[in-house]
Write a structure and sequence with these properties.
Layout (H helix, E strand, L loop, with lengths): L1 H28 L4 H7 L3 H6 L1 H26 L3 H25 L4 H23 L1
Length: 132
């Protein structure tokens, strides 16, 4: 059962990482595009004036994805302590960031939930797999 929980946790971690990579593309590459602006309710002028902030925030998301993927790789090569630490810390940061988004912009609750659910369940599964 513990191996199954770890496998599910790894799959959820990779899903969470892929979402973070997508968010990177939205924030760092597509911030001023029509679709992104409509999602966040921004005018072109607002998007342009916040582009640098979004650009750097996107890289934050990318680095969380890289950290969690590195954790998965290390875990799969038997480096359980380091791999799990990277997975759990990156996933916790993803959940915390989604919570900040939810609290600061409740109208983006759906976006926050999509960002929070996979890493939250990854944390639970990896922790359960390690505790067994």
């Amino acid at each position: 059962a513990e191996v199954l929980m770890l496998v599910v946790g790894v799959i959820l971690t990779l899903l969470a990482a892929s979402i973070q990579i997508y968010v990177f593309t939205v924030q760092s590459l597509n911030w001023t595009k029509d679709r992104t602006r409509s999602t966040f309710g921004l005018s072109l002028a607002e998007a342009q004036s916040t582009q640098l902030l979004a650009f750097t925030q996107g890289f934050h998301n990318l680095f969380l994805a890289v950290g969690s993927i590195l954790g998965v790789i290390l875990l799969s090569f038997g480096q359980t302590a380091v791999g799990a630490t990277l997975i759990l810390s990156a996933a916790a940061a993803m959940v915390a960031a989604a919570l900040v988004l939810l609290l600061s912009a409740p109208r983006l609750a759906r976006v926050a939930l999509v960002q929070a659910a996979p890493p939250l369940f990854a944390i639970l599964c990896v922790a359960a797999g390690l505790a067994a």
